[in-house]
Amino acid sequence: MTQIVNEYLTAWNTTDAEQRAKAVAAVFTDDARYVDPLADVTGHEAIVALIGGVHQQFPGFTFSPVGEPDGHHDVVRFRWGLGPEGAEPPVVGADAVTLAEDGRIALVVGFLDRVPG
Questions:
Q1: 3-state secondary structure (DSSP) of residue 116
Q2: What angle do CA 79, 19, 66 make, to 5 degrees?
Q3: Where on the phi/psi map is residue 7: left (φ > 0), alpha (ψ -120 to 50), or beta?
Q4: Residue 28 contacts by C-beta under 8 Å, 6 or more apart in sequence?
Q5: Angstrom distance (rounded) from CA 20 to CA 23
Q6: Mean pLDDT, residues 81-99 taken together
Q7: Hey, which of 11, 53, 60, 106 has its CA 20 to 30 A from 17?
Q8: pTM above 0.85, yes or no
C-alpha cells in the first residue's frame, strides 16, 4: 500500500511534463479515471494535464502523505497534504484508489477535506 501511495504522490509532485507523463504511465492504467469535486478525467493525457494545472495553481507546493494508508482487497485509501515543503499544508484531502490486476491504479476517487477560501 505504501509503495503505490508513494508512486502516486511522485506522479503528482513531478513538475517536468515529460517526466510526469512517464510517472503517470507507470502508476495508472491506460484508461484510468480520476474524479474529485473539481475534476473528472480519464486516461494518461488528461491526468497529466490535470496535475500540470495543479502545479500552475499552486507553484512550489508538494503533495505529502498524511498518516498511514489503509486498504483491503484491491482498494487503498490514504490522506495527503498539499503545501510548501516542511510547512503545515493548507490543502488536505483523501483519496481511495482501486488497483487493476497489474497493480496500477485504475480509479481514483478524491475528496477535499480542507481547502483555503
A1: coil
A2: 10
A3: alpha
A4: 11, 44, 47, 104, 105, 106
A5: 5
A6: 96
A7: 106
A8: yes
CA separation, residue 80 to residues 13, 43, 45, 64, 68 (Å): 12, 22, 23, 6, 10
| Average pLDDT value for residue range 83-109 | 97
Cα distance between the two ends of the chain: 32
45: alpha, beta or left? (left if phi > 0; alpha if psi -120 to 50): alpha
- Domain spans in the chain, listed from the N-terminal domain onward: 2-114
CA–CA distance, 82 with 88 (Å, rounded to integer)? 9
What are the φ/ψ torsions at residue 73 (nearest 5 degrees)? 50, -120
The CA distance from 73 to 87, in Å, is 34
Percentage of the chain surpassing pLDDT 90?
Answer: 97
CATH number of 2-114: 3.10.450.50
CB 9 within 8 A of CB 80: yes
